[in-house]
Amino acid sequence: MPDNDQYPAVLHYHDSTKHHLNRYARSPGYLDWANQPNPFRFFEASPKLRLPLMDHDSASSYARLYDKDKTQKRTIDLAAIAAFLELSMGLSAWKRYGESEWSLRMNPSSGNLHPTECTLLLPALDGRPACVAHYNPLLHCLEVRAELQARTTPPMRNPQGFGLILSSIYWREAWKYGERALRYCNLDVGHALGALRFSANLSGWGLRLHPEVGDKQLDQLLGFDRIEWPDTEEEQADCLCWVSDSKTDARAVSEWLHSLKTPQYPNAPNQLCAEHHPWPIIQDTARSTRSPGFAATRVSANQAADNADLVSELSAEQIIRSRRSAQAFDPQTSRIGLRYFRSILKQTLPNGAAPFDALPLGPDVHLALFVHEVEDMQPGMYMLVRNPDHLSALRTQLKLDFTWEPLGEDLPLYLLQAGDFRAQAERISCQQAIAGNSAFSLAMLARFEPLLRVAPWRYPRLYWEAGLIGQVLYLEAEAKGLRGTGIGCFFDDAMHELLGVKDHDWQDIYHFTVGAPVEDLRIQTKPAYHHLMAVPQNPEK
Ligand SMILES: Cc1cc2nc3c(=O)[nH]c(=O)nc-3n(C[C@H](O)[C@H](O)[C@H](O)COP(=O)(O)O)c2cc1C
């Protein structure tokens, strides 16, 4: 079926998973705790490669999150890959309240349900053959699923670096959120991409999506098309990234992948829970948005990278490790200086450098901001236009009485309407106080129908871009002594009404909020890998 025939299915999914002021999108409406899917994927029978935990942080400066060129390139070996994974997809802490205990990770996830899995395509390294290995963040180990073998003799040399495939288990999110879960899974992919891109920078490595390989090929490569999944537990490949310490030749990556035999996987993944509830629209939409493979386009840079003024009391690693979602904000102290506010916004702009250099498309997402408490700034609604090519469409398609008053030359930031939007921000974000008690909150407005009518497979990719922006905001908030929270629950059309969006040219796809957190002192914290410290580690198991 030609691509654009899938657009109605995408539109149907998007519209029917909107939350409305009088009705939420379809979900179970209760939590079946006995059948909560395991947040950890195991390939129990696969050989394990234990990865070393970092014994100290390198105390890299905060600016190095964005700037790999100032970092000494680390040789790609298992110890370096271990540090890269620990600081991106690894555990960050354990939390305990009463009888409940749960882990947190470096990458955030809607509902802490973690649908995103990570698999590496490793070349021969440290005397081990090339292999496909699943990263298990609970054990901080690689589960070696299969060796990678060449079809050709002599085998083609792999390009410098290694491959990394993200995949999603929709059921983990659908268990709680029902049909809207696919959106959350894709936002989580964006956050994971951001976490990985930042972590790669700390080793002086680049990380870029390699979109030339279609999703079906990725499923084949991972054997997902040959696994008999328990009901609804199906896992789907999202994207392949290439991680390297030198410039990557995309053609060489594609040729090397084509030169490989389809791996045979002897071991099955674990079953995540006993009983399932189908949400067929999720699988149907995921099928309608599979990428056929496409060539990366040059991502237009809004302005050149300039990280000279980035300062924080925390090192890059401290920022990554301490990142958390705020549960509540103190409205009395949730205030931010103008310089910091502008600096945060600047980091969300694509500038040809990390983290947005990971994406092969865009930018297609803009920030509609509710400024509540920014020093020397009028409270009100503002727009950060992340792609200058969209400015005139935004001006003519949103409310015509918006002022569009520009706020300085160094940022494409415009005042739309002055006023106190605390109550509206809170109401639109599913009545969540965190959207109104903060210093500022925002909605991410995506170019929608004009893109998706031609290429419906870009639907998940809009969410990846939004998740990546969200990851920048999380780390930026932390660096500036504040805290952020991603907000997936919002009343879509109520936000559209506020902006004057009348059709599908633009759609709100994610919210975020930043302020001064109120800590819940009843919750206890334990170190991320305390459970591994107790057991002597055999590196071969
Ligand atoms: C895509 C996404 C949507 C989220 N939506 C909400 C939300 O609507 N309300 C909320 O309080 N937290 C929300 N969160 C925060 C998650 O609950 C949080 O990331 C998770 O509990 C893990 O905690 P951590 O971020 O501190 O590691 C969201 C996070 C993500 C990544």
Detail the topology: elements first, then pairings.
Layout: H1 7-16, E1 48-50, H2 78-86, E2 91-97, E3 100-105, E4 116-122, E5 131-136, E6 141-147, E7 162-169, H3 170-177, H4 181-202, E8 206-209, H5 215-222, E9 235-244, H6 250-258, H7 280-288, H8 316-322, H9 338-347, E10 365-371, E11 380-384, H10 391-397, E12 405-406, E13 413-418, H11 422-428, E14 440-447, H12 449-452, H13 458-479, E15 483-487, H14 492-499, E16 506-515, E17 524-526, H15 530-533
Antiparallel strand pairs: 1-6, 2-3, 2-17, 4-5, 4-7, 5-6, 7-9, 8-9, 10-11, 10-14, 11-13, 12-13, 14-16, 15-16
Helix pairs in contact: 1-7, 3-4, 4-13
Flavin mononucleotide binds at residues 104, 108-112, 184, 187-188, 191, 324-325, 432, 434, 485-489.
Notable features of this structure?
NADH Oxidase; 541 residues; 2 domains; 27% helix; seven-stranded antiparallel beta sheet; single chain; binds flavin mononucleotide; alpha+beta
Give an account of the 3D structure:
By secondary structure, the protein is α+β, with helices and mostly antiparallel strands. It folds into two domains: 231 residues, NADH Oxidase, CATH 3.40.109.10; 203 residues, 3-Layer(aba) Sandwich (NADH Oxidase). Helices cover 27% and strands 19% of the residues. The chain is built from 15 helices and 17 strands. Strands 1-6-5-4-7-9-8 form a seven-stranded antiparallel beta sheet, with helices on both faces. It has a seven-stranded antiparallel beta sheet with strand order 12-13-11-10-14-16-15, sandwiched between helices. A hairpin with a 4-residue loop joins strand 5 and strand 6. It starts with 6 loop residues before the first helix and ends in an 8-residue tail after the last helix. The mean pLDDT is 94. The site of flavin mononucleotide (FMN) has 19 residues, from helix 4 and strand 15.
